[in-house]
Specification:
alpha+beta; six-stranded mixed β-sheet; 10 strands
């Protein structure tokens, strides 16, 4: 029985492909031969097919890290602020800003309804940091959709920098 289980495990085990290269603190790195940015731990990704071909779907953290690396920024930076409007005893809260660069505070989000407040978050972060607000929308289906359009249109009207990340391309508007 022991030998039978060993043979079954060997026959049905999956092959792991190792490759060199260091990982950043999120467990990700660039593959120099393909130009692909991918992660080995901590950030989930999966492939799915769409009308425009196979795309990589990842969570917001994955895309935030990808954009931050592209721009030379940092992810998940926290700022405290006082929200007592009367000026007496302080009322302290904090926000987490998705991406901060030398010039911008960027709120990123997937192309879902939950990203509709990204402009407000970026503008508020801008008031705390003195940096310009920007928004980033991360394409999960390979298509320009209604949420990308709504956020892009609002950002354009308010003169807020807009990033759209689709596949391996980062579009700046």
């Amino acid at each position: 029985m022991k030998y039978f289980l060993t043979i079954i495990i060997i026959l049905f085990s999956t092959k792991a492909m190792a490759h060199g290269g260091g990982l950043n603190k999120q467990g990700c790195h660039n593959n120099r031969s393909t130009g692909d940015y991918h992660c080995h731990r901590g950030i989930n990704t999966k492939k799915q097919s769409s009308k425009s071909g196979s795309i990589t779907f990842a969570n917001e953290d994955f895309f935030n890290l990808k954009l931050a690396n592209y721009l030379g920024g940092k992810t998940e930076v926290n700022y405290k602020y006082n929200y007592n409007i009367n000026g007496s005893s302080p009322k302290i809260a904090s926000i987490s800003i998705d991406i901060i660069t030398d010039e911008y505070v960027i709120e990123g989000g997937l192309d879902k309804r939950s990203s509709l407040d990204s402009i407000q978050q970026a503008v508020f972060a801008s008031t705390l940091t003195g940096k310009k607000p920007a928004v980033a929308i991360y394409d999960t289906n390979g298509l320009w959709g209604k949420y990308e359009h709504r956020i892009y249109s609002s950002a354009k009207k308010l003169n807020i920098k807009f990033f759209w990340i689709s596949g391996n391309k980062i579009h700046e508007k």
